[in-house]
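Is this the right way to post structure tokens for a design question? Let me know if I should format differently. Anyway, here goes:
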């Protein structure tokens, strides 16, 4: 029977487990019950399950939760301090580097603005209000996209523009002023490259000259634009530079297309004074001198062109009027023209000139054929030689007998020596024959054609008086180019009857003397003015005999002296020494003597005089125009000597 409790006070220890029934049960309260009702096992199990709230099996015990919090009894303080070091959502200042495998600005990573995946990508607007430093790769416009990158300025929305769609990088400047000085150049500069770490020393600038002009400039200077620096193109490894072509063939290749004459290069000098034109200098190695081409003058239509060589010295000048001057700077050298054989002649065009090595002539194409110039003059006739006299080259024609001087090409001023035949010497106690007349004429003009040359013969010498009457004769005249040299006069011939006085001529014959002659004494005969001199007189009562014949430059010596013939004219400095007596012409013949002793003929081919015992008179030298020697006493010798024949010598420069 069950015990009933009638009082609400139960003594301590009145109820024990042994006294309780093993099947004791109680009513389970709701989970929200907060009274003092008995908590059944069901209530407790539900309360614990609600506390775990389906937590993972590894976090559903207090021990597991403590381990997850790092067994940190001050976990709240630790987390608070850690959060304090983070950037707030409202923004703030980062004092260190930011490193992240991925940063998304936007709702999803498919529409990101900034994302780091080994490189950096910008897609959208990024505003940096201070310095931006990137230590790594920055990719703008990822492959496959067509987004652009640009930097704006106050005046241009595309100051620096990376055009991703067209693969271009552009720099745009807004310049409305002409660039005329350093200040406007700096203002117009759109792109600059500074050569040093600090701005100011050397800057390469690119700029537009003025808005809408289409002209652009490039200059190396400093920050103020007032310094001059060199602009080098391919200075390290070389390479060609081209303007107007994509295929340069040389170090600097310029091409300009268009019909007619196209100016490809223009050189100018800001200095407009005379002689300050621009110049192109060609040098070798480090030398400052070589060859050059320069202009001289201030106007295009009045400028001369100089070609310089040998220390930058002018050698050739082309005048603005078209004349070519090779005597610039007192040039004393020569201008060499093309040369070759006759077979190598090019197709002719009027005005061509060359040196023909086949005939050693300078020739020109005149009209429709090549014609030899040959210094502008060609001639033939006589004995032709060449000679260098006083450093000048001459061609010489010597006529020792009559002939024709033929001018085949051109015209010239020639020098001419004309000598006639000398007179014959007298027969006994006789005078020497006078020299032939001598004419020396310079600058004689000749044209193409034939010129007759007539050479005078020497006069005959006389026989002795005991052999018959005197028969000596004057020399014959020589003519050339309308000039006539008069033949020399014969000398005196004496005899007891039939003595003959001397004859005048180019140079006069010498006089004679002997007491037994019907004409005992005689003066010398006169010469021709400008061609020769008079003969010497014969007048000596002790040493009977004749005077010398006159010469080209002196009177014959009279009988009281040496009786020598007058001296001839020395032309060796003009025609050389091949002809005449070593270049001397027209000496008078020596006079004859009664007593023993030879008398000399005048220098220039004059014959010697004879005497009465051992010496016969001699003839003058041929082609000298000398007078014949006079005979001595009638009992000895053949009589007088013959005069020398004349000569004509012509020279002209070659």
């Amino acid at each position: 029977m069950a015990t009933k409790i009638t009082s609400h006070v139960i003594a301590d220890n009145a109820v024990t487990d042994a006294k309780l029934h093993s099947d004791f049960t109680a009513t389970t309260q709701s989970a929200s019950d907060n009274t003092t009702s008995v908590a059944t096992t069901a209530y407790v199990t539900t309360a614990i399950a609600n506390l775990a709230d389906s937590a993972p099996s590894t976090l559903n015990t207090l021990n597991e939760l403590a381990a997850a919090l790092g067994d940190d009894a001050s976990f709240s303080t630790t987390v608070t301090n850690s959060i304090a070091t983070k950037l707030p959502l409202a923004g703030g200042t980062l004092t260190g580097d930011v490193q992240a495998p991925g940063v998304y600005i936007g709702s999803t990573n498919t529409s990101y603005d900034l994302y780091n995946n080994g490189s950096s990508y910008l897609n959208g607007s990024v505003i940096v209000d201070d310095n931006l430093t990137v230590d790594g790769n920055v990719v703008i416009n990822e492959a496959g996209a067509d987004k652009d990158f640009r930097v704006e300025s106050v005046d241009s929305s595309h100051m620096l523009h990376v055009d991703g769609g067209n693969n271009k990088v552009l720099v745009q400047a807004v310049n409305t002023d002409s660039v005329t000085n350093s200040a406007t150049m700096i203002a117009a500069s759109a792109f600059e490259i500074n050569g040093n770490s600090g701005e100011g020393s050397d800057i390469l600038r690119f700029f537009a000259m003025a808005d809408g002009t289409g002209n652009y400039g490039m200059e190396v200077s400093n920050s103020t634009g007032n310094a001059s620096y060199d602009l080098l193109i391919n200075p390290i490894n070389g390479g060609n530079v081209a303007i107007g072509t994509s295929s340069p063939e040389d170090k600097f290749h310029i091409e300009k297309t268009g019909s007619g004459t196209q100016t490809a290069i223009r050189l100018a000098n800001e200095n407009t004074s005379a002689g300050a034109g621009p110049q192109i200098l060609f040098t070798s190695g480090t030398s400052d001198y070589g060859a050059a081409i320069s202009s001289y003058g201030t106007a295009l239509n009045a400028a001369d062109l100089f070609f310089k060589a040998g220390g930058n010295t002018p050698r050739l000048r082309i005048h603005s009027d078209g004349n070519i001057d090779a005597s610039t700077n007192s040039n004393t050298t020569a201008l060499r023209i093309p040369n070759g054989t006759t077979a190598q002649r090019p197709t002719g065009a009027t005005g061509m000139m060359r040196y023909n090595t086949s005939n050693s002539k300078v020739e020109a194409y005149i009209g429709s054929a090549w014609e030899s110039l040959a210094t502008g003059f060609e001639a033939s006739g006589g004995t032709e030689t060449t000679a260098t006299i006083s450093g000048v080259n001459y061609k010489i024609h010597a006529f020792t007998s009559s002939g024709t001087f033929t001018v085949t090409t051109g015209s010239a001023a020639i020098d001419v020596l004309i000598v006639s035949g000398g007179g014959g010497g007298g027969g006994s106690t006789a005078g020497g024959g006078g020299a032939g007349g001598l004419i020396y004429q310079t600058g004689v003009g000749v044209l193409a054609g034939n010129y007759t040359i007539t050479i005078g013969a020497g006069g005959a010498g006389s026989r002795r008086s005991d052999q018959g009457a005197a028969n000596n004769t004057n020399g014959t005249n020589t003519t050339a180019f309308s000039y006539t040299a008069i033949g020399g006069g014969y000398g005196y011939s004496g005899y007891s009857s039939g003595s003959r006085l001397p004859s005048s001529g180019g140079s006069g014959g010498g006089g004679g003397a002997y007491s037994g002659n019907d004409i005992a004494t005689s003066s010398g005969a006169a010469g021709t003015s400008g061609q020769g001199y008079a003969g010497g007189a014969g007048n000596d009562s002790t040493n009977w005999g004749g005077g010398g014949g006159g010469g080209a430059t002196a009177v014959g010596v009279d009988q009281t002296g040496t009786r020598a013939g007058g001296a001839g004219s020395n032309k060796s400095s003009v025609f050389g020494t091949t002809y005449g007596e070593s270049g001397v012409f027209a000496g008078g013949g020596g006079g004859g003597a009664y007593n023993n002793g030879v008398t000399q003929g005048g220098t220039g081919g004059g014959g010697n005089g004879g005497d009465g015992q051992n010496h016969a008179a001699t003839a003058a030298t041929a082609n000298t125009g000398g007078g014949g020697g006079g005979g001595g006493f009638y009992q000895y010798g053949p009589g007088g000597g013959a005069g020398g024949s004349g000569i004509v010598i012509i020279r002209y420069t070659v």
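Format looks fine. Someone answered above. Worth noting: Residues 378-654 form one domain. Residues 109-122 have pLDDT under 50 and may be disordered.
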